[in-house]
Write a structure and sequence with these properties.
By secondary structure, this protein is mostly helical. It contains eleven helices and no strands.
Length: 216
């Protein structure tokens, strides 16, 4: 009797793979619906109906609509970081790593425009958050890139300027590009955009003669 009661209390063990898969399915649906309908107009029931589950199932994974939305944004940023890491891991030369990173960043947002929509909505709906999700992730991942630039400066391959200045400028430039593409429409393939950005960042716009006379 005691063994039977203990087994009943323990219940069936959780299938972690099933749990993880269900969580991803919910986030897939939520990302698409939030992007299409906007945060205020989205009902959790819509995601539940699309997945063929009860609303309570969604709430077991994400207690509130706010939690569901922010989890969708957070997952999107994790995927961006993973995509950049996957593309740059095999790069041996630091300059090649930068090139691959820029291309991977633009490629990711080209393939996932719904994440840009969610970033816009996050800013509109949650202005009081201490730091938007995008910048939380950027700050978390910037360290290795700054170390890369320190090494390039030490090797004499990059001008001796503060590394934070370098990463801020490049990061802000890329951030602006994805929103320009989103609102105005991408005017050229992202590969060409990446090459243009890298050419201006690496080579500048001044000739050597004029560069010497125009230091700021």
């Amino acid at each position: 009797m005691k063994k039977a009661a203990a087994a009943k209390r323990r219940g069936r063990p959780k299938d972690r793979q099933l749990t993880a898969r269900r969580r991803e399915e919910i986030l897939d649906a939520a990302t698409r619906i939030f992007a299409e309908q906007g945060y205020p107009n989205t009902d959790v029931q819509t995601a539940a109906d699309e997945l063929g589950v009860g609303k309570g199932t969604v709430y077991r994974y994400f207690p509130t609509k706010r939690d569901l939305f922010l989890a969708a944004v957070d997952r999107g940023m994790h995927r961006l970081g993973d995509a950049v890491d996957a593309e740059t891991t095999e790069a041996c030369d630091p300059l090649d790593k930068i090139k691959r990173g820029v291309r991977a960043y633009l490629a990711f947002f080209d393939a996932n425009p719904e994440l840009i929509e969610l970033l816009i909505q996050e800013r509109a709906e949650f202005k009081r958050r201490k730091k938007p999700t995008y910048f939380e992730h950027r700050d978390t991942r910037i360290g290795p890139w700054q170390e890369l630039f320190r090494n390039l400066i030490a090797q004499g391959r990059v001008r001796d300027v503060p590394v934070q200045r370098i990463t801020d400028v490049i990061g802000d430039l890329l951030y602006g590009v994805i929103f320009t593409n989103f609102f105005a429409g991408r005017r050229k393939p992202f590969e060409v955009q990446a090459d243009d950005i890298l050419d201006v960042v690496f080579q500048g716009i001044l000739t050597n003669r004029n560069r010497r006379g125009s230091r700021t």
